[in-house]
Amino acid sequence: METKKRVLSGMQASGRLHLGNLLGALTKWKELQDGYECFYFIADWHALSTCYEDTHEIKGNTFEIAVDWLSVGIDPEKSTIFIQSLVPEHAILHLLLSMITPIPWLERNPTYKEKQMEIKDRDLTTYGFLGYPVLQTADIVLYKANCVPVGIDQLPHLELTREIVRRFNYIYRRGVFVEPDAILSETPKLPGTDGRKMSKSYNNAIYLSDPPEEIEKKVRSMLTDPQRVRRTDPGDPEVCPVFALHKIYSPTPSHISEISDQCRRAKIGCVDCKMILVRNLIKEIRPIYERRCELRSNPEGIYEILIEGSKKARRIAIATLKEATEAMGMG
Question: For domain 210-293, which CATH number applies: 3.40.50.300, 3.40.640.10, 3.40.920.10, 1.10.240.10?
């Protein structure tokens, strides 16, 4: 019997999940479950890289993320779902790998400077923020993951992991770790309510935990074509954030074409256009929302899944760390 390749991915416990997370990652994760041995973890330690001054929400975020994952179909019978901090081997391997990782490798990471420019209200000149790719490498290689699902913007991070693996295996003359390959996922550009990229940092997101009435309220507040001032003005749907969501949530291509045509000929107003999106979006999200409500009524069951998954993950992590320390002559 052919052994399935192993996939690993995770999400920071830094806030609730939104439509961007669903389309950019979770839909792909769900699909991968049927062809790979999947390990998905909630990265509560990674959340400290930017949220170290205010940690009180990390535990609650961890629970809510688990609920989101289960509600969209991440299945604990098919995938190992666990919490990073319940597997302390992540921290130990991070320490060991940090001893061999050149600082210039970390400083050239594009996210390092981008995030410092983007997040102005926190001091990110910390070792933890600079060195988080090393912890990310430990996360991946502890499980000898063959593949990591990433967007094209995350490829430099994965290449750094591959470089650290090569360096470790070369220095210690053992092929302990596996160089992971990327599973590229096509991530549609998803605008938030203000037209910028949907992000919890911008407070412009539609969350998987939003009830229908909240979704309607947010969509009604969305920016539209700035040149369309009056109802009778023809619009340009290609510059309208609402139309970008229509492209994803309309039931058929003909619906998309019809909305585009009506907008260009001023046959539909922005309010009516938004209400069509509201109906389609709620129809798509309602099963997830209802499943969330059901799951949240049994928190003990959620924590049991996380604890059991963490135990399984840790057994693998312990074995890999033993191989690594023996290769270093420290085991």
Answer: 1.10.240.10
Name every residue whose Cβ is closer than 8 Å to that of residue 281 and which is 6 or more positions away in sequence. 206, 215, 219, 245, 249
Condensed to tens digits (0 to 9), the pLDDT of residues 248-283 reads 999 999 999 999 999 999 999 999 999 999 999 999
Please classify residue 251 by burial: count the beta carbons closer than 10 Å to its beta carbon, then call 0-12 exposed, 13-18 middle and 19+ buried. exposed
- The residues carrying an active-site annotation are 115, 197, 200
Q: Distance between CA 306 and CA 83 in Å, rounded?
A: 7
Per-residue pLDDT tens for 37-73? 999 999 999 999 888 888 999 999 999 999 999 999 9
Whether the model pTM is above 0.90: yes
d(CA 216, CA 282): 8
